[in-house]
Amino acid sequence: MPCLALLLQACGTLSTWEVSPQETAAAKGHFDDYVDRNARPLVEDGKTPGLVVGVLFPDGHTSFYSYGVTDKGGQKVGPDTLFAIGSLSKGFMAGICSTLVQDGKLSWSDDLGHLLPPGTALSQDAAAITAEELATHTSGLPRQPATLRTLTYFTEYLFTGENFYRHLDRDAVLGYLADWSAPSKKEPVYSNIGYGILSYAAELRSGQSIDQLLAQRITGPLGMTHTGYVPESLPDYDKRALGHAGDQPKFIRRGDLAPDWRMTDILRGSASIYSNARDLMIFAAKHARPDGTPLSQALADTLRVRYPRPREAAALAWIADDVGGEHITYQIGLIAGYTSYIAVDPRHQTAVVVLQNAFNWDYSLGHKLMLALAAE
User: CB-hemisphere CA count at 13 Å for 204?
Assistant: First the structure.
């Protein structure tokens, strides 16, 4: 099924957007105007109904910039507005696992043969996959299994926006491992099922659900009261930003509402978190400005590159890249009708969060702001 695999891989490929350092250098001394000049047109040109930007400056203060609305005729968005953050959830799972490693409950070298329950049918290649390989997307596992059922659901998604991962429950994902063969060369390949398996392993090793792990190890200690896997349980859920079609789904008109996604049991840890810009800035700041606490050390360790390469080196959930002459460590989240971006720069002690309630491939705004902060 080479054509099917290519199509499904392409549907989630992130474009690389070049950013001119000369352009961002022009922001020096006029940062608020620079944010406005680059963010406002995304709403005014119909790219997204709403947009919230959070910025951590080198002196430690944060600012938020908000544009647009939660939905047509809805409320204005702001730093407390909930958004689905999609694959930024992986950064939280990497942080959770890093604290488990810190506590001796997990080792990055543990393999699936020892992480999964006894009797789980695993191919020899699958049994050898390590926790670190799952966390760095270097296991060789694909984004999702390239099956005819996946293709059928993906085709439906293009017209309806419905979740094309809805059949990938725990049995389906673990069953896929029974006769899986690794590629001849392992290198970073983004894998949603890989992070689903990692989250399941974290539950097994800790004896807790991912909801409990998130609350006890990340959001509770950091005071992140608007972040969780169950959006209905979060404050101001009824005022959340609703997701909209953008670059995808291809055959839904841009700006129309897109259906919410609910991920299966094993994929919740991969892409199910809702949060807001204020909470995400707290999370980002803990990475960008380490304070020596055990949690800060665990989160800082997720930024360490495990798989170096010239472009898009792999850390734990994070991508490390040189953009416009600056080193930026970032993540992108795309799910249903939302786009999210988070980046940190410990050298300059800065961070940026960008949340949109439309699905758009272009994440260059976040990179532009990180470069402008470096210029500052």
Answer: 16
DSSP character at residue 128: T
Q: What is the pLDDT of residue 125?
A: 98
Residues in Cβ contact with 367 at an 8 Å cutoff, skipping those fewer than 6 apart: 17, 19, 323, 324, 328, 330, 343
Distance separating alpha carbons of residues 94 and 297, to the nearest angstrom: 13
Q: What is the β-pairing status of strands 313-314 and 274-275?
A: unpaired
In-domain check, residue 18: no
Could you read off the pLDDT of 296-327 as tens digits, one per residue?
Answer: 999 999 999 999 998 899 999 999 998 888 89
Domain count, the chain: 1
Query: HSE-up of 73 (CA within 13 Å, CB side)?
Result: 2
**Which alpha helices (H) appear in the chain, and where do they start and end?**
2-10, 21-25, 31-44, 89-102, 112-115, 124-127, 131-135, 148-160, 170-176, 192-206, 210-214, 220-222, 268-271, 277-288, 294-302, 364-375
Residue 46 in domain: yes
Closest C-alpha among 267, 320, 314 to residue 133: 314
> What's the whole-number average pLDDT of the chain?
93
Determine contact, residues 225/235, Cβ cutoff 8 Å. Answer: yes
Q: Which domain holds residue 249?
A: 2-12+26-375
Long-range contacts of 103-107 (CB under 8 A, 24+ apart): 105/205, 105/206, 106/131, 106/201, 106/202, 106/205, 107/131
